[in-house]
Amino acid sequence: LVAKAHASEADPKSALYGKCIRALAPDEHRWLPRDAARKELKQLCGALASALRVGGPEVRCVAAEGLRQLQRQHPAKMRAAVGSWFAAAVDAALRDGDEARTILVSVIEAQPPAGVKPALCEEVLATLFGASAAPTEAGAVLVATPGAAPCVDAEVLRLWGAIVGAVGPALVRGHKERLNALLLLPSGAFAATAPSVRAATFRAWQRLAAAWASALTAPGFDAGTADRRISLLLTPLKELDWGTTDAEAAATHEAAADCACTLVRMLGAADLDRASRQAADEEKETPIMKLACALVGHHNRYVRLRALRAVAQMAGARPASLGEWL
């Protein structure tokens, strides 16, 4: 079937090609034998990725669903074979709307932040920008025009988080112009009037924070760059009006708290270590932990509990650092 699918790619609109892809793509009602899917997963992913590139809209939806079911069946194998399908999934998600995009975003999101190798990050960035800092036709979906109305499409914001979270390790170290272009979309959406859009933006921002955290604390990473990146990650959290008590603000506050707690868990200890290295006559700056303190006293019970759990997890990992701060 894989051989027939590849052989008929020259005519992707043919009935044979569609039949091959439907036979290869498991769905929730019809599963490939589990062992067969596991043993031939890389070949299956390659054929489905080709279908995403050359097939028509219906075939792309079938291929996207196939990848989703393989992800559910064999998540570890899909992570190991990410190079065979990830770039095609990103390209199709950028070009397709509605059903195919929703399915593919769930597959892309299942990859852990910073779980994509540098060469694949560069391939995805080339899909978004080509050889320049200006977005391609496909990449324009994730890049807002300066001065334009903020993005109000929660699915596009979710796609932004999935893709930028995956290529985060490349963006944290370089690609300044491309990073600035990509940041325009969430920067506008943070100010959207709809709480659901603001909440979706913070969920997307959380993936960027998780992707950057391991790189920012890696030995040898430039301290000045790390400080600037952490300041960037904290900016929307500092600018949020946490004191609003109406029911509509709750979803925004809870999504923002999840984002903040990711920073506390992953970067809080580094924040304290940086403060301990400051001269004795300087004020000890701990912006991440100051945010944690504010959240522990928040009026929303969900926010308080999330913040306390994050601090508790940090205490378990770095009791000495946290004890001195407390």
- How would a crystallographer describe the biggest sheet? none
- How far the N terminus sits from the C terminus, by CA atoms, comes to 62 Å
Low-confidence stretches: none
Shape: elongated
Helix content class: over 70%
Tally of individual helices = 18
CA radius of gyration? 22 Å
* Count of β-strands: 0
> How much β-strand is present in the residues?
under 5%
Structural class: mainly alpha
Q: Calculate the mean pLDDT score and round it.
A: 84
- Give the ordered list of helices and strands: HHHHHHHHHHHHHHHHHH
Notes on the structure:
By secondary structure, the chain is mainly alpha-helical. It contains 18 helices and no strands. The longest helix is centred in the last third of the chain and has 30 residues, at 247-276. The protein starts with a helix and ends with a helix. The mean pLDDT is 84.
Write the layout of secondary structure elements.
Elements lengths: L1 H6 L7 H10 L9 H6 L1 H14 L2 H17 L1 H6 L5 H10 L2 H12 L8 H12 L24 H13 L1 H6 L2 H14 L5 H22 L6 H17 L7 H30 L10 H10 L4 H17 L1 H7 L1
Helix pairs in contact: 2-5, 4-5, 4-7, 5-8, 7-8, 7-9, 8-10, 10-13, 13-14, 13-15, 15-16, 15-17, 16-17, 17-18
